[in-house]
User: Fold these one by one.
Assistant:
Number 1:
Amino acid sequence: MRYEAAGLTVLYVLTFLIVLPVLCSTWRYSVYYRGGESPDENDPSVLSYFSDVMTSVNDETDERPVFLLVTIVTVRREGHFYLSRVVARLHQLLSAYNGGNGNDGAIRAMICNVDRDPELHQEALDLQTIYPVVRRDVQQQPISYNDLMDKEKDDYIFCLNASQHYHEQISIKKRQSSGTYYILVLEDDAVPLDDLLPVTRRFIDYLKMRRSDDDRDFFYVKLYHPERLQNYWQPEPWRIAEWIAVSVLSVFLLQVVLGLRLRRHSLWIIYFMALTECLGRPHLLQFKRWMFARLASPAAAYNLLAATECCTPAMLFSNTSAYLASAFLSSITCKRGYAKDTALYLYARQSGRQAFVVEPNLVQHVGRVSTLRFN
Ligand SMILES: *[C@@H]1O[C@H](CO)[C@@H](O)[C@H](O)[C@H]1NC(C)=O
Ligand SMILES: *[C@@H]1O[C@H](CO)[C@@H](O)[C@H](O)[C@H]1NC(C)=O
């Protein structure tokens, strides 16, 4: 007994004061993160990607119906090539996806230029050769906004409507009925990760299947939630349950695998709770994804959970919910403390519509400073 207490003390000191501070100093979401090792923001290889790429000529000849439209909302960001990075990555993923032999639909993309002065957004103008660009002309904007949050919201409405309109045009051109389709709205600093398209597809199929039960569409699915809000120390009951479950399981495995006969169970459970929180839950989610990729398929590591408030870098809507969202947003005024993300979240709760979040994230949020605020 006394040995166990001494051993535990040594273990706590070793773990939290010596091993973790050294091991995790470059782990971005751990409590020991000391900065450094940030990915190169203005990776010049992005620009060379476009010089190698043939513009999307085969889009026009693709006869499959478009079940998903990816719309990138963009404004000027001096000194950064966020948009190019997003478009390059998306282009890679889309080419692979559409080139696959699925007959059940294609994915298309467009860029929505909502800069105050769209003519000055040179990066978006240059990318017209890759994806079609729609823009919100100066005449369509009020002369001034009381609050930037409200401009952000109007931009979003414009892009949602433009997406619906563009999908309609494609369908007419192909002489197909548009049917149910989906719109994924990405902000221009949300770089797609490898699993984005297959996992989105999987959840679309899942939600479609579920829908036949009660005939009500989901309102939105968030494909990104800020990592800093993904930790255990958050007031979400299911996450606290997960925290305890993971810790209890770890103690159990320790006993079984190492054949230890532990007595001070509560201290061991607290040890693992502290350990997982200090490592950072986003890292645990990455580890889970890595495990699933080896044991099953990476897509199996993603979960659909009830939506949490905050942030709209990557939002999935159905054609019906996109209509609903733009109609709702058109009826409100946004201000500090009531931005579009909060408004949508509250609306979903009040109207009893289902909103989800996917975990782990399917995009990487690279814009440390958004044009408007910290995000
Ligand atoms: C969305 O698609 C469904 C299925 O085709 C259709 O019935 C519905 O009217 C569409 N919704 C809107 C708002 O266009
Ligand atoms: C966008 O569509 C919604 C819903 O149809 C409508 O209420 C709103 O006026 C439209 N706004 C713009 C800017 O087109």
Number 2:
Amino acid sequence: MLLLYLISLLLCWMANATTCSQRRKVVQAFNVHRNASSDTTPLQVGNGNFAFGVDVTGLQTFKPFGTLSTWGWHNFSLPTTPGQTSVADFTGLDWWTHGRLVNYNQPNPAENDISNWLIQNPQRVNLGNVGFAFGGVKVDESELKQTTQVLDLWTGKITSTFVYQGSSVEVETSADPGADAVGIKVTSDLLSNGKLGIFFDFPYSDRNKFDAPHVGVWNATASHTTEFVHTTDHDAVIKHALDSTTYFMSAKWSGKGTVTGPASGSHRYVLTTPGSKSLELTVAYSPSQQLSQTTYKSMVKASRTWWGTFWNKGAFIDLTGVNNANATELQRRIILSQYLLAVNSASSNPPQESGLVNNGWYGKFHLEMNLWHLLPFARWNHFELLWRSTPNMYRRFLQSSLERAAAQGYKGARWGKMTDPTGRSAPGEINSLLIWQQPHPMYFAETEYRAYPNATTLERWDEVLMATADFMASFAYHNASTGRYDIGPPMYPVSENTNPNATINPAFELAYWRFGLDVAIKWKTRVGKPIPQEWLTVRDNLAPLPVEVDTYVTYEGIPNMWTDNSTTNDHPAMSGIYGLLPPPASGPPLNLTILQNTAAKIKETWALEESYGWDFSMLAMNSLRLGNVDQAIKYLLHPIFQFDDAGYPVGGSRVPTPYFPNSASLLIAMAMMAGGWDGAPGLHFPKGWDVKVDGFTPAM
Ligand SMILES: *[C@@H]1O[C@H](CO)[C@@H](O)[C@H](O)[C@H]1NC(C)=O
Ligand SMILES: *[C@@H]1O[C@H](CO)[C@@H](O)[C@H](O)[C@H]1NC(C)=O
Ligand SMILES: *[C@@H]1O[C@H](CO)[C@@H](O)[C@H](O)[C@H]1NC(C)=O
Ligand SMILES: *[C@@H]1O[C@H](CO)[C@@H](O)[C@H](O)[C@H]1NC(C)=O
Ligand SMILES: *[C@@H]1O[C@H](CO)[C@@H](O)[C@H](O)[C@H]1NC(C)=O
Ligand SMILES: *[C@@H]1O[C@H](CO)[C@@H](O)[C@H](O)[C@H]1NC(C)=O
Ligand SMILES: *[C@@H]1O[C@H](CO)[C@@H](O)[C@H](O)[C@H]1NC(C)=O
Ligand SMILES: *[C@@H]1O[C@H](CO)[C@@H](O)[C@H](O)[C@H]1NC(C)=O
Ligand SMILES: *[C@@H]1O[C@H](CO)[C@@H](O)[C@H](O)[C@H]1NC(C)=O
């Protein structure tokens, strides 16, 4: 043991840039301290597939923050409207598409009820709340004195203390790194005299598109049921049934105790453990009735090991040698973002925009956001977290995506948009017409191949890339008068604010189609299989990028690009062609003058105060490639691009908080600053910044 320890110290010491003890110092300098509950964000412990959000008590005592999982979902009952009582009754809408009628998965006014049902169902379930019960007395947060709380990022543990009626309470909260379970330790005299217990509560689902900051309703008690299925003096299992969704909560505690309940008109149960001043409790949630679970002590140990390995293994940026408030703020954001993405996004399903904090878009995930969410795991050398979902989720959704394309008369697989774990894409005009999620598999595959250029990588992506490229080639429309292949109409570009029937050849999608087909073509060469002629024909005859007044514009023929403020808002995706995407590997090169002009026009005219999310990171990456590091830093610290005291990305006027694509995109941009890109590898930080980086490879 000692020998192993010494070897690991030696390895740390040999790693030239950031030693393990230095990493620990940097990480823990950004431990989160609170002394009151936030109205908007919890502190969380979790593991990517499960997270437990807490208020200032270290539990969910005053604020019912979420206990969210990858597997917990619920359907409301289907409508009873005649003709709209089953999923099969939904028929969508037909739109003209290059001279033929194509059926799109859009809400049909004649089928309002089933359309809405398909949008609102299933929703992600808040599995339950665990909080302090004060011996039957209703207590307000203001009655707690000397509240302190710290989230230790290095061990994944939250320690909270407070004084209630003169007695101190200490609470430690950790999550199991490998199970849907939380471990809680409470130390207080109040436990032994029965003035302090633990409650378990279970909400019903809500129909809100944005169910934030809290998920569920607690007063619809008649709509769902809870019951004991097992109880002894050291454990209890409660079954929760919401319509056809059923799952179990299993609690185990040290010493002897009793769970009673539910209190009338509620689904609240209370655990009391008189006779001891200390309580160790584990609470696990599972769709199956599972009684065995790890002890509190082994859970805490596993959490410490998992997080220690996480921080030591991945890539690292140390800005603490830079004496500048901007560097300190960036350091804070990248440390907290790494913690939050591992807790909220490292799941076996694609992550949702608000992770496992609360529900945005009913808790569903958006496949066009997937690249932002998951790419940081690759760029920061945590492929093990990327591989939890990717590429297997593309394989899981392949059959339904092949069917979606075939029903519309296309070859290959058309990936869905706002998706639930079955792979079904929710009806919506934008949902059905957005296309920039299509080439994402190529981006993931190529990124993975650069890190692991071997047969395993080639094999596991081949089928998905083939089906994706087949769709992309078949979707491009051969324009007989120009001889070019056009993209759209109808379609929505990244910015979702154009007329879909007029949108043709958008800059970002054209560039991304070329990138995707280039990767697919290279892939076929690598696996030694023939390249489908159609891929080559389409790639080599793609319409040129739209240019007006010496700038790249949103789409070909867009009226008044830079003079009409209705076009200079939403996502400035043309900056992504030389930010998120590498320069083209085929076809005409990008024109640097036009790129510079475009960046300048965006800076001058864009309604950035209405922008949100990853716009700032995308603009920062564009600035980096154009050689303007200071502008990149300005974008990353733009006043609208906000992260709260615990690092949660603030959503703003159009999306709820948290909006994790912000955190993820920040990490992608920072990886580019730390690793450079092909042709310009190495560091790209402002002059005079003494930065240490470790473990980055150049971006594409
Ligand atoms: C609580 O935290 C806030 C913000 O960090 C701080 O300004 C305040 O002084 C703290 N209050 C106490 C009583 O510690
Ligand atoms: C919700 O209903 C859909 C459509 O019948 C079904 O595919 C899905 O599995 C259901 N999900 C849950 C959680 O019940
Ligand atoms: C687009 O065209 C379809 C007919 O193909 C029409 O039903 C739809 O309303 C049009 N959409 C817009 C936004 O103009
Ligand atoms: C639950 O509370 C909400 C908000 O106060 C209220 O609108 C709703 O009618 C209540 N529902 C029930 C079933 O009591
Ligand atoms: C390819 O690399 C991955 C990651 O290191 C490894 O798991 C896999 O075994 C490798 N495959 C081959 C064929 O070497
Ligand atoms: C062919 O391309 C031209 C130029 O982009 C465009 O005006 C025309 O509408 C396209 N034709 C069809 C049938 O889409
Ligand atoms: C780039 O675009 C500018 C502005 O339109 C033009 O003057 C220049 O010739 C172009 N450069 C190349 C290499 O095409
Ligand atoms: C565009 O400008 C008009 C007139 O100045 C203004 O009323 C409107 O709010 C602006 N719209 C946007 C999206 O900024
Ligand atoms: C920090 O960044 C802001 C905006 O990008 C800039 O105005 C300011 O000068 C920078 N501060 C320091 C100390 O470099």
Number 3:
Amino acid sequence: MALTLCVIGASGFLGSHVVAQALAKGHKVRAVMRNPDDVTKTSWLMKLYKAEGNLTFHAGDLDQLGSFDEAIKGSEAVVVCAFPETPSEPKLIETVRGGALHILKSCTDHGVKTIVLTSSGGSTNPKEGEPPVKNEMDHWSDPDYQISQGKYSPAAKTLMDQAALQYGKDHPELRVVVLNPNLIMGPMFQPDLPAKGSLNMLLSILKRERLDKIPNGSMSIIDVRDLAALELAAVENPHAAGRYFGVLRSFHWKEIMEAIHEVHPEFEVPPVGYEGDDVRPTQFDHSRKESLGVKLRDLKTILHDAINDLKARKLL
Ligand SMILES: *[C@@H]1O[C@H](CO)[C@@H](O)[C@H](O)[C@H]1NC(C)=O
Ligand SMILES: *[C@@H]1O[C@H](CO)[C@@H](O)[C@H](O)[C@H]1NC(C)=O
């Protein structure tokens, strides 16, 4: 069923994948960004398959109540990929939580039926430490504790999830879905590699500019194309509501480094930087995520395709 879909943060890493997949599926897309008159943000989106006649650009600013009205009016569903991961500063809390509430109000004012918000796994980490198996319904971060630790970015996501789910309870005519990813990897549509981001981080690991020793840590990863597919599946599934992990699973850094070496043998696995037991990667209850029916790429495919993108850009 073809929909009119509003994608907020459309010129970003994830947002542009949501736009591309939505167009390919035959949806009409209203792409929202801070400055839609900036052709460096729109010209490459206009080259996507089926963009001509199906993609329009609109302005919106998280800090401005009502600024999304024009873009959202006439949309059946809204996907939000606009919340900054960095920098972590106190002001971010109002931008993220307040921005989500601005968008939610525009949705109910204009009869939108569905909203999917991209949050972070940083809102699902109990203060008491990791449970044996983490699930989206029971496990919440403590925002006051996060703020006391200076972790404003994950605190903002925790407060955003709470506010968005409460808004959904108060407005049952709007179906509210939240996706909680951690590290998002994969090929990019953007013509230029941003100064920060996961491909940049991968590039610095490959060049041995960071993680010259394997740390005792783990990382939860998903391919950007699969996260976009999960978000569109949540739009299209009338029963989807509430939080969903946006992760393939969590991997120890040893496993990640070995997978990089397998897909890119020029990369030598760095030495292990500690002696003793390995941290246990976070264990997730995958059932809600799997109910969305998206087959996720495995770790080697994710790394292979991300590394190929760096090679195609002649950065490697
Ligand atoms: C716009 O989308 C419709 C529906 O998928 C499609 O038939 C049409 O070819 C698209 N326009 C272009 C220029 O691809
Ligand atoms: C690795 O991390 C885990 C979990 O924090 C800890 O139990 C283990 O002792 C650590 N190993 C080393 C060698 O520090």
Number 4:
Amino acid sequence: MNVSESCWKLRPAILLWILIFFCGSVLLFIDYRLPYREMDVKMTLIYPLKSTDHKIPIRENLRGYLIKTTGCRIPDMDPFDPTVREYIYKENPIKCNVTLPPLVEANLTSLSVIKSSFKAYKIKYLDVFVCCYFVFKRYDPKKDEEDNDILINRTCVKFKYSILIKDEFVKVKCFYNGSEIYKDFFCFVPPKFEINNEIQNSMRKPLSILIAGLDGVSRVNLHRQMRKTMDILKNELKAVEFLGYNKIGDNTFPNLIAILTGLSEDELSQVCWSNNTDHFDNCPFIWKKYKQKKFVTSYAEDASWMGIFNYQKNGFCKQPTDYYWRTFSFTADKQIGNQILMNNNLCLGARLEYKILLDYIKNFVDSMRIYKKAFFNFFWSAGLSHDFLNYPRFGDNDFAKLFNYLHKTDTLNQTVLIFLSDHGIRWSGIRSTNQGMLEERLPFLFITLPKWYKKEFPMVYENLQRNSKRLTTPYDLHYTLRDLLDPYKLTSNFLKKRNQISSESRSYSLFDNIPENRTCDSANIPSHWCACQENVEIEVNSTMAVEATEFAVAYLNAKISDFKQCQNLTLKKIISAKVSFSGNISSLGEGAKKDFTVSFVTVPGDAIFEATVRQTFFKENGLENKELPYTLKITGTVSRLNLYGSQSDCVSDFHMKLYCYCNT
Ligand SMILES: *[C@@H]1O[C@H](CO)[C@@H](O)[C@H](O)[C@H]1NC(C)=O
Ligand SMILES: *[C@@H]1O[C@H](CO)[C@@H](O)[C@H](O)[C@H]1NC(C)=O
Ligand SMILES: *[C@@H]1O[C@H](CO)[C@@H](O)[C@H](O)[C@H]1NC(C)=O
Ligand SMILES: *[C@@H]1O[C@H](CO)[C@@H](O)[C@H](O)[C@H]1NC(C)=O
Ligand SMILES: *[C@@H]1O[C@H](CO)[C@@H](O)[C@H](O)[C@H]1NC(C)=O
Ligand SMILES: *[C@@H]1O[C@H](CO)[C@@H](O)[C@H](O)[C@H]1NC(C)=O
Ligand SMILES: *[C@@H]1O[C@H](CO)[C@@H](O)[C@H](O)[C@H]1NC(C)=O
Ligand SMILES: *[C@@H]1O[C@H](CO)[C@@H](O)[C@H](O)[C@H]1NC(C)=O
Ligand SMILES: *[C@@H]1O[C@H](CO)[C@@H](O)[C@H](O)[C@H]1NC(C)=O
Ligand SMILES: *[C@@H]1O[C@H](CO)[C@@H](O)[C@H](O)[C@H]1NC(C)=O
């Protein structure tokens, strides 16, 4: 074997990221600096919400709360709320950027040539057609090196129709009349343990863990996009859906680190990863504990150039788990990746990468069933969902199929399935709306326990269900995974005792009774990411309601001023006003924020608008704390709540149509 194809330095899309960042953060706003004024408003907690005196339905006012505890309230969001509806549409189906169909395919054990593709490849004479495969494997990087290199065996093993494969990763080439016509990559799950060494003893069988992740999908977006998957989860698998699962950090890394190690990013730096050039080998990943218990471990992730431990990081030195898919996906992506949309290649050759990943998961689980091995499998799919709000829809059938398969094959009779995301979408239009902002902080989480286990350990299930309506975090999920190392200890007595002695802590097992008065603070959720919101209706003629509304009207007029054919708008009436904030409203200090959502009528045209005006307090040098000045800005765009009809025929711009009242 010779070392080759090594040290692929990959920093290609940094410019792209910067571009995305700017596109994502073009929040339209005007920054006004206003003097501090005391809030002279009477606050009435509108809870539950009452219908107000206006005729048009303001959806938010009809909403209840999903999480309704002493410590946290999270509003129930309508996936198709008018304020976000414009961002929800059908995308064009993804097609791989290749002209020819696949010529070779793989099943659990073998490679075979797809005869029906011969025509497309103009293969007529089989005596001049041959394929062969190269075996490759991971090459452990040296200190400071990235986790990308492979060793490839230069012997190409020939086959014509099909061949049994005993290796994990192969590269395939096919030739017709001496010229290369096809290149592809395949992965298998060969046993990496002694077969038939299962000791039949009286010990109870452990529960395998299957963690299936879909990057960047809020709970609400999952409901929008993946109806079939939702249906299987809820109706067939009887999964528990967590309504108050709140992210603890901005992007994928901190949120998954919390699950996999129980540590925050800062703590991780102190404990095991001091330097961005370090590898993560010494970190206390939960899979190490499962490994100690003789579970077979596997970690598989698509879109691997921006991998959880590899994006601007160095990954691992020794491969972290028994099966490590990155070796395959990175290599294949480098050589046959195509159809790059925004960040990453969606396809490997003629196949969608997330589908290859799902097939791999199925093969992995099948193999473990055949070999009767308990497993811990963490897989993460970012390719499909990372960049586009409306792409997860394309994966709906495939995820539904996989979950259904796990169900039908009784895999889930001995496996805990955890289906989750890390956060909602972090850019694109919806992110600039109030709801999009909240969704971003609330990823989905579903947990499925074997039916018999729920019966035998009723308190586990009871608590799980109760906790689904409480504020929960990735740290809790970590604790839960620790509990599942020894699922048979979780008797009602054990849980009751633990509940009595446990003092308030940052994390709880989801099988424990999470305190009803838990707050973002006590759960260590930074207030910036806290989805617990207090909504307070304020008088429409109060100073802040009027100020916020006038600000919104001025904002509209500023937009309109570029269009000579549109008339200036004047405020006619404020319909409703409310303020939402997180944290303690009486201790607002520097950086504190309040969001005023106002709906109002303007003339001419009697247009009804809804705007969210954010008030941000800041401290200036020399000013007393009492005199906190603040800025106002529009978050997202201003929504039009009634139809504009022919009022705006004189403009074609989509957004201006909402605002423009044409000169006659
Ligand atoms: C390379 O592959 C060939 C064919 O499978 C095999 O005979 C040989 O032992 C392999 N070489 C190494 C170093 O594994
Ligand atoms: C996989 O494909 C090979 C070759 O076509 C076939 O002989 C084998 O039965 C297949 N195995 C499974 C599990 O389908
Ligand atoms: C193969 O290639 C040779 C030379 O390039 C050519 O003469 C021959 O006709 C080809 N045969 C087939 C079956 O295409
Ligand atoms: C980080 O690692 C690099 C390379 O090993 C080393 O040169 C540097 O001093 C380290 N920095 C810190 C803060 O440890
Ligand atoms: C598709 O492939 C063509 C030719 O290789 C290339 O020019 C084009 O940029 C690719 N498009 C995408 C979206 O990857
Ligand atoms: C499910 O698992 C339980 C406990 O391990 C076992 O008793 C039962 O037979 C299994 N059922 C099926 C359908 O495999
Ligand atoms: C929740 O209630 C417990 C006991 O009543 C109390 O000790 C704890 O401080 C409370 N936590 C918060 C965050 O208010
Ligand atoms: C707002 O209007 C109500 C009823 O019209 C009135 O009682 C109240 O004093 C007004 N508040 C302010 C701040 O003007
Ligand atoms: C519209 O309003 C802007 C600012 O409020 C003002 O400068 C402008 O003169 C007005 N235009 C008309 C036609 O009234
Ligand atoms: C809110 O902040 C004020 C002022 O700092 C403090 O007196 C009050 O106790 C706080 N309330 C809560 C519920 O933390």
